Protein 1
Amino acid sequence: MSDHLLKSIFGRLTWESFPLHEPILLGTFIVVAALGLALFGALTYFRLWGYLWTEWFTSVDHKRIGIMYVILGIIMLLRGFSDALMMRAQQAIAFGDNQGFLEAHHYDQIFTAHGTIMIFFVAIPLVVGLVNFVMPLQLGARDVAFPFLNNLSFWLTAAGAVLVMISLFVGEFASTGWLSYAPLAGLAYSPETGVDYYLWSLQIAGVGTTLSAINMVATVIKMRAPGMTMMKMPVFCWTALCSNVLAIAIFPALTAAFFLLMLDRYIGTHFFTNELGGSPMMYWNMVWIWGHPEVYVLVLPAFGIYSEITSTFTGKRLFGYTSMVYATVVITILSYLVWLHHFFTMGAGPSVNSFFGIATMVIAIPTGAKIFNWLFTMYRGDIRFELPMMWVVAFMLTFVVGGMTGVLLAIPPADFVLHNSLFLVAHFHNVIIGGVVFGLFAGMVYWFPKAFGFKLDEFWGKVAFWGWVIGYWVAWTPIYVVGLMGTTRRVNHFDDPTLQPYFIVAAIGALIILVGILGFVMSIVMGFVKRDQLRDLTGDPWDGRTLEWSTTSPPPAYNFAFTPVIHDLDAWYDMKSRGYERPAGGYRPIHMPRNTGAGIILAGLALSLGFGMVWYMWWLAALSFAGLIVVAVAHTFNFARDYFIPADEVALTESKRHQPAVGA
């Protein structure tokens, strides 16, 4: 076969594209392939493919889609954290003559992949998953506003994650940092496939995230139960609303920046190049006008989780509900006015830097107000220190330190000194781990019994808790210290041997966090093993205050047999205090959306399009794009999109579900 024909079929994909000469990658591939084959074999042996396809993959039920988002996030957490362990090990040994086990190019790929995966494919899916599962239940809705769009959003996110994973074994990933800075990400400096993998995976996943955000905002505005005014919504719904409004505002900027960078790489334009009128700094502006609000897209729902848990486990209404709502809205607006603090060092001048420095300090005020609201809720409350509440306390102690170092970095002269040091990296992990990750674990522990009908194993849950909390402080305190000394970030080797003890301690901290991650996985496994002992028969295991606890665990497909009518904030607490009894009859048929396979098929074609564009397989890209158009148009002719659950079936379901609850 001629070289020309091979190139027209396989583009730039050759045998050299496979990392057969890289022992670390080859070993990883063998392990992943073995696990994948074992999973495939098990699903085939137990004949689960049909069940998964009909009940999960094609499902438009917001609860199942939320669970799938969380599963995706946990799987990608294991991948992203393995990158973190390799970086920590490299930095602990690479001093003086010892170059470590990762050469510079490979190390750059690993820290790029770590940041990309942890934000786009761990934090976002976990946040979106919890919002997806909980918010419609708290609103008293049967599903989200656009059920099919919800399914498509998930599968596009999953397709982006798969494309990132493919880059581990076919070609290489970007080595340009987790936001792939121009001009380094341009064709002149990065001609390999890495940046293309990065761009296509994030464009595909980004479309999914944007569509999901539109869906969630529409759900809050249009799907609230009768009587639930905006100021009677649970705080979690408010934070989810603000988070998703922010996502709608910012993701188009990121999409546009990536699209222009694609044009630079594919057709030779000069938007972000160093020559011919290009402006790399414009890329930084477009990326960070997404990047800083994105931190709040993640942390606002976490704040909502802390609010729900604090209120539930203190047995009190949240202190200052109105101020909490206003603080959330103020954070949403101000988060759009602080992005330039990510490059005070670019030389914009004192006026610009002063404005953004002051704006960054001001945003700490509503965030601080939230901390005081939670503290005042706890004050004189009957606090139950169960596992979700432990995560809340750990968050307060950890996140406040990250907030203070953030205000320090908001001062432009201080940032000039610290910007390119590990101090900034420690600050970022302080707020993301202490704020977002702790909140996500709190939320998963809190709502797990609602999703599956049994609690997580408490012993392993506490192992996870202490592993994360102790591990965080051991891993990142020394990084704060060496950063304050001026140690540079993004480096795989150090010359000064006096720094080595700090990095060894940091590596030990990462291993303690690994114990926390494995502890969480074990809490799920052992929870399943001991599910009969941990079973929740009441639907309300924590004595909750919001509507999701008014239905059974797990909830039926239709969520509520009758749409609840709301009279007060903390609707379920209000109903319990008024002596609410479940209806015994009078059921009516319930209108529900029908499952569809269009979402997973469209996402598969998007994945194929991305892979074809990365490797210059133009025929594959063209066929995939044509397939996307055909399937999307064909789906518009699918008129069998809904069905009714008969009243008899609803009555039977309700009687079965509520018999144990009555006994309990």
Protein 2
Amino acid sequence: MLLLPLGLYGQSSSLTSTLKSAELKYGVQYNYNASLAAQKQGWNDLPAQVVDFHAQIRERALLDVLESSPKIYVLAPMITDTSGSAIELDEVEVFFQQPGLAQPVPGKFLFQAPNTQLNLAATPFDIFQNIVQLPGIQSPDEQVGGLYIHGGTPDQNLVTWNGIRIYQMSHVYGGLSSLSTHTIQQATVEKAGIDARWGQHTGGLIQLVSQPEYHPGWSARLGLLDVDLGIPLSIGSSFDLVMGLRKSLPAKWDTPPMEVISGHYLPVTSPGMNNKDWGYHDYSVSAVYRAQKAHQFRAHAFDLRDQFSLTQVQTQFSSLEQTEQESSGYGLSWQAQWPNFAMQTQWSKSEVTLEMHEKLDQLQWDEEDGEFDWEGFSKADKINKIQETEAAWTINSLPDPYLNWRVGYQWNLKKIGLNTFSEQELTDTELFDYSSNKLITHAFFASFNNRISIFSFSAGLRYNQYSNLGVGRLEPRLKLDMALSPSLTTYASFEKKSQNIFQTHEEISPSLEDKNNMWVGADGGYFPLLMTQQQSFGAQLQHKEYLLDINYFQKHWDQLSSFNYGYLDPNDQDFHIGQSEASGFNLFGQYKPSSWVVWGSWSHIVGNNQFIGLKNGSSFPNNNTQKNTLVFGGSWHKNRFSVHNLFRMASGRPYSRPDSVVEDPELGHRFVYQNLNGETLPHYRRWDLSATYHWGEDHVWQKKLICSWQNITAEKNILQRKHIYQPELDKINVLNYYSVAPTFYLSLILSTK
């Protein structure tokens, strides 16, 4: 393996040139086994945690440790080319790094699980809790995976795991990330300047990648919420596999975080006796087989499931509501390399299902038994399902320091269905069966990258043919980088994108409150094809101990439906077509000396909507954007002990306050708004703190104990404000939804070297 500094190439210009050339020409992997290096040096304790950074690989690299210092290893790596000949590179400096963030190229953020971490005050590495700390990304309702990127909504993002699209990004309807880190070795986040290879979205791109060939070893974790197991397997030098298994503890154990999360993310607002039962699991497996030096086969599969049931007993009625969210997916890929080009073929299938089953029993007198019995009064079922199949073929040039190209074709099929069933008093039956809406998309894309002197230029073009709509969409992608110095780079990008699948205001279950919004496909009517255009400008200053990135963006949405999630108050059920604008500044800074790290991010985002038939066509704020968000974090490391903290402040999100109520023949009543999203919630504040202690590095099993406290100051942040009408009092009541209560979490991790 070739060791490099995290996103840096040292101070020597010749060394920089050598490493960049090797990285591009041979696609080498750079990684670091901290425990192995410590053994070679005869250390019992590492001076600091080393951050791993993975890149795409073609050949494995060989290395020998020659000498060391408290902060630096000097290596003489050897790599092999496609013919098997050994090639020796210049010496490479590798710096010990505290956990932090990397930017391998301007505009792209990289996490290396579990070492590269921003939200160390959270539960053990949770990928989406880390991503939300980046500038330009918000989660105003505290839902893990509910990422609002550059003013867009979560359904506009494209999230993939090894090329397979993931729709379910959280467990407990927003409490935890849906995938454990055993099969996530790398995560990249792009908010702008996205390559033409990627379509089917108008927001950000998040790629989660497994690399079973570099999994460190066995790992087992026991926490107050769940148990987690990572199992690697290697057969010879050609086959590697890793499995991740996580399952929640029984809900009846009612540990402190279970009580808090179930109360916050699964709220119950109805009076009477209530009983909640919930659970989740996620299983994933990733494997790679190297048939020959120039051929790789990869296979991946996952299964995610959440279940929540709520029983409410009142005087004469008993209701049971059960909701389920289940996702699964699998994919295959073949990568091949020839002397002048490389090719990749990929096929994947994924699906997500939202289900709600409701049963209402009534207490009635049984004359035969002479007592009261519960008898079925009504039943209802609602199922929302997405099935997505995708095949892609890509051919590209071999990596070159100056010129690279890529062309490809992508076929995508989505089936979206909604089925509802209701039965009243077990006699009158009503069945609605909406046949699956098939969305077929053909896409052709091409891109090339060219570097001349200090300039690096990327240009791409993507053509999407939406068959069911009879519409074609041409999407240019442009990006320009200019290296003003070895550490300072400026960049600019322009892109057009579109998507044909959305979430709506309608929920699968009203009990869960905006955590189970249903999916629909573009139909050219109530939900037209959503189109965006974005331009961005920024600068990046990067050194071995610090990173500074500043960015400005402007984004425009066209053909936006008022039924789309996140732009209007859900009580406004009229259909309107409109557009939205967002712009803002993003700033990220990080400083990493030898034993501690501090970082901060600031986001300033302003978003406005304009719908035909609303407010006479004038613009008004959207209700998904916090105008200012400021985040500070830091960690300190000494021997086996670490302390981490995270503090977050944000502006309150806009919302609409109804002025009056009018009668409605279908809904019974509806609110009337003089101003749309004209009110603002109070400011948001939250402080998280955690501590880590690890020991046993000189034994087979290494141990780590993590304690964390979330919302340690017990802030009652209002995340959402809804209004409910009481007809008997002719009064509009306010219902506030608050942030998570103070939560203590404890976790023990065992891992092999």
